[in-house]
């Protein structure tokens, strides 16, 4: 089982976006399963602030998407194995930060709400063993998830990572 770190740096979160609207490129980090049967377990979601204003509250949501991205592209994201000696499987998950048409965050499948001040603040969620968030496949609601700013957010730069295992 291979473990990976999906990262993005920096993204400007802007005012946030409502559920079920196409997310704007370079304001999120997305993970999409590589095949219809691929299973991913999310063990950590982290965001760190890089804002220059003293008050830059961030309202981030890690959620499943009700509509997947069309033509997802890296857009400042990276995907790397955490074990330098691991052998990559034939197909990897797609880590993306931009798309021809952005994914749409589900209004009912929010998994984590993470709030913090991007003026040097951090927020981190870490699963206990056996309680990881799972993703299955490469279709809407089960196989595509994003960490993105929610409505009411204050614009600020952040960096983020999502640690996951390809099971």
Order of helices and strands: EEEEEEEEEEEEE
End-to-end Cα distance, whole Å, is 5 Å
**Number of domains in the coordinates?**
1
Helix content: under 10%
Percent range for β-strand residues: over 45%
- What does the radius of gyration come to? 15 Å
Question: How many strand segments?
Answer: 13
Uncertain stretches of 5 or more adjacent residues: none
- Backbone structural class: mainly beta
- Morphology call: globular
Mean pLDDT across every amino acid position: 95
* Total helical elements: 0
Largest sheet: 6 strands, antiparallel
Topology at a glance:
Blueprint: E1 2-12, E2 29-32, E3 39-49, E4 57-67, E5 70-73, E6 77-81, E7 94-96, E8 98-101, E9 104-117, E10 122-126, E11 133-136, E12 144-149, E13 157-166
Antiparallel strand pairs: 1-6, 1-13, 2-7, 2-12, 3-10, 3-11, 3-13, 4-9, 4-12, 5-8
Relevant terms:
globular, single chain, 167 residues, 6-stranded antiparallel beta sheet
Can I get a quick summary?
This protein has no helices and 13 strands.
């Amino acid at each position: 089982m291979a473990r990976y770190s999906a990262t993005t740096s920096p993204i400007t979160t802007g005012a946030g976006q409502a559920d079920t609207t196409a997310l704007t490129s370079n304001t999120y980090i997305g993970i999409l399963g590589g095949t219809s049967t691929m299973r991913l377990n999310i063990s950590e979601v982290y965001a760190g602030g890089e804002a220059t204003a003293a008050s830059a509250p961030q309202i981030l949501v890690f959620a499943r998407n009700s509509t997947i991205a069309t033509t997802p592209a890296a857009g400042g994201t990276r995907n790397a194995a955490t074990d330098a000696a691991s052998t990559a499987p034939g197909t990897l998950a797609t880590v993306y930060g931009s798309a021809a048409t952005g994914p749409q965050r589900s209004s009912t499948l929010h998994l984590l709400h993470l709030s913090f001040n991007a003026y040097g603040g951090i927020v981190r969620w870490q699963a206990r063993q056996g309680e990881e968030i799972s993703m299955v496949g490469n279709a809407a609601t089960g196989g595509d998830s994003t960490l993105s700013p929610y409505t009411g957010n204050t614009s600020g730069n952040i960096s983020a990572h999502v640690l996951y295992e390809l099971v």
